[in-house]
Every structure is written in C-alpha cells, then in structure tokens.
Amino acid sequence: MGWNNPAGHNGGDPGSVESWLISAGRDRRPGSPLNVPPCLASNFVLGDRRAYSRDDGTPGWEALEEIVGGLEGGSAVSFASGMAGIAAIFDQLPTDSVVALPDDCYQGVAGLAEAGERRGRWKVHRLAVADTARWVEMCGAADLIWLESPSNPLLAVAELDVICAAPRKSGAILGVDNTFATPLNQRPLTLGADVSVQSVTKFIGGHSDLLCGVVTVRDARLLAALRMARELGGATPGTLETFLAVRGVRTLAVRLERAQSNAMTLAERLGRHANITLTRYPGLASHPTHDAARRQLKGFGTIISFDVRADAAAADAVCSEVRLIHHATSLGAVESTIERRAGIPGQEHLPPTLLRLSVGIEAVEDLWSDLDRALRNVGGTRD
Ligand SMILES: *Cc1c(COP(=O)(O)O)cnc(C)c1O
After folding, report:
1. Which of 72, 136, 296, 351 could cysteine-pair with 216, CB 3.0–4.6 Å?
2. Looking at the whole model, is its pTM more than 0.85?
3. Does residue 305 line the site of ligand 1, with CB under 6 A?
C-alpha cells in the first residue's frame, strides 16, 4: 500500500513506540503528502476497493487504525466515539448473556450495561476491581468480562495479568477499557485480553477537540464482526476527527511523559496537604492497588482523585477557585481539568468531596500554586 509499516499492517510489534507514533500511518510514495489529508468523500468512483465510506472507510481512518493497532498489538477498528466502540462490543452478546462489570467504571458503560439489563438483553454482575478471585471465577461463567484499569474515578488497578490468564467460558469476550492507561502504559491484548478499547477523545487525541474511539482485537472473526457493527450501526468516525486524532497521537509519548511526571509530583504533595483527607494515585505507595500498578503499568498515569476536607460545597469551591486548571469534565488533554464527580447524574454513589484531576503538561510549579491556593482558600486560611 505504500505505508511505512515495517511491522506489517495493523498488528505487528511496533518496535520502538516513540518512533512508531511518528512514522506509522503515513504514505511514503513519492509525491504523497507527509500527513494523510482529510478525505471529505462519502462515495468514490466505482471499480477500486472503496465505493462508500461508511462501508469501506477512508485513508484517514486507516491511518489512525494502523497507529493505534500497532500500539495495542492487534487490528483496530475506529468508531465515532469510545462509547460507540464499546456499544458495538456489547452488541455482540447473544440474548440472556451474563456480563461482569467493575463496581467502579466509566458511567457511560455502567449506563449501557444497566439499560441492556432493563430490556432483558443480559444480566449484570458488579465486581470490586481488586477482587481478583471473584473475577477469575466470573471468567468461567460470564459471556462478557468487562474490565477498566485503572478505573474511573477511584483509580483501582485490576490484576489483569491473572484475570486475563483465567480459563473463560467458550465464546466469552474479555474486554479492557484501556483509556486511562493508554497503550503506552499497558497492552491488554499481550496479556490475553480479547479486546482493548481507547476513548480516542482522551489521551490519543489529547487536545479536547474531538470525539472518537478505537477498539483493537486479535481474533479475525471478532474483527469482522466489529467492522460489520460499524457498517450497519453507522457509528463511523468523522473525517476531521480522525485527522485531528492522528495529529494528536504523534505527540502522545512526550505528552504522557510530561503529564505523568507532573502527576506524580502533585500526588505526593496533595497526599500531605492539610485540607485533603485522601489522595488516590496508583503511583503512591499508600494506594490500595499500588503493587498491581507497579507490576503492570509502565507509568502511573495522569489522573489523581482526592477528597477535600469538609463538604461538597468546599470541593465545589476548589473547582471555582482554580485559575490555571480548568473546571471541566473529561481528561487526557494537554490542559489540566478538575471536576467533582459526585455532582454528575448517576455518580452520586461516589464520595461527595471527591475531585478528579486530569493533569496536563503545564509547568508543575504553576499547577501546584494554583491547587494549593484554591485549597488553602476553602480551608478558611485565606492569606
Ligand atoms: C471517556 C471515556 C469513555 C467514553 O469515550 P467517549 O469517546 O466519550 O465516547 C469510555 N471509557 C473511559 C474510561 C473514558 O474515560
């Protein structure tokens, strides 16, 4: 095809990740643009392999799929959003299936699972992320084992290595939402998972300017089924969105390295702050699943969640006091964002004062001054 793809299309070993991020998904033929340009076309002149883009894709989708597929170690299918990809996986389940779901996970996935259960599509079991024995047991009974690690927003790390190796019911699918780890910190397919999902909206895109998702698998039948689900369900990625996602993913390694280093510094300081009662970050030795995180994650990620002393109003005040950090939802972008998660409909079960901080790539001392000032002010010790 002319791609610079030393690892073989979509699924080989990407070798050095940093170089793969820069070199994959390009057309090296003489005269080709260095970046695959947005192809604004629904239909193509008949006679070649593309007729209609919902069925046959665009060069831009393929570039993104090649890059992310190589990172995850499988064949990738891009979707309109992370949720569109996850819905396509749930849609594979036969009626009367059993779904094992983490007790802490992305609220959209919990909502999707609950809606399907209400309609009698499947039965859902919610398991504690760290209860490995229970997950292993459910591997033998469930049709879909859905893991998210680290989890949102409590940042619990599942023992994926143990769970992915457990015997599964025949035909079962084990999927991992790998959004928080990114494929740079964790590659579930190499541990034996069937599916790894990225909400490209987050770290892969990295700039809060698009919605997109990528599902990566190794099994050829599952790959064909997911492509068919996209074609028939119509949740295709946007042309501009995939162009921006490819542009964004080029810098993933440097963004992640910087944001992770910022996050570690902030987590240590937040952990000692007088106006914080609990700091959750997988990189802290005090974190309940720190051992699993050390074993499985190359880096501890950029998300921290912490509980503000006092009440929800005090936590809300921190969000309105910050000046550099944005009071906004979502995560994984260059800019830092903060949000009180229990304030979101469906998330009322969370600690009322829990703030989720997505650490960006700003100067760490500026982030710290911003947080420290906002926290001191709500503590009533305004200076
Ligand atoms: C954002 C997110 C999703 C959903 O992705 P969208 O692109 O918003 O549809 C799924 N899982 C996790 C962990 C997320 O953070």
Report:
1. 72
2. yes
3. no
Instruction: Give catalytic status of residue 194 as yes or no.
Output: no
Residue in 64, 79, 81, 83 to alter for ligand 1 test, most ligand atoms within 8 A of Cβ: 83
Same-domain status, 228 and 257: no
Is 169 considered catalytic here? no
- Domain identity same for 203 and 264: no
pLDDT given at position 5: 41
Determine if ligand 1 sits within 6 Å of the CB of residue 82.
yes
H, E, C per residue of the chain? CCECCCCCCCCCCCCCHHHHHHHCCCECCCCCCCCCCCCCCCECCECECCCEHHHHCCHHHHHHHHHHHHHHCCEEEEECCHHHHHHHHHCCCCCCEEEEEECCCCHHHHHHHHHHHHCCCEEEEEECCCCHHHHHHHHCCCCEEEEECCCCCCCCCCCHHHHHHCCCCCCCEEEEECCCCHHHHCCHHHHCCCEEEEECCCCCCCCCCCCCEEEEECCHHHHHHHHHHHHHHCCCCCHHHHHHHHHHHCCHHHHHHHHHHHHHHHHHHHHCCCCEEEEECCCCCCCCCHHHHHHHCCCCCCEEEEEECCCHHHHHHHHHHCCCCEECCCCCCCCCEEEEHHHCCCCCCCCCCEEEEECCCCCHHHHHHHHHHHHHHHCCCCC
Residues 337 and 199 in one domain: no
CB 202 near ligand 1, within 6 Å:
yes
- For the Cβ of 106 lying below 6 angstroms from any atom of ligand 1, the answer is yes
Q: Cα(180) to centroid of ligand 1, in Å?
A: 9
Residue span of the structural domain in which 189 resides? 17-98+171-249
| Residue 177 designated active-site | yes
* Tens digits of residue pLDDT in 321-360: 999 999 999 999 999 999 999 999 889 999 999 999 999 9
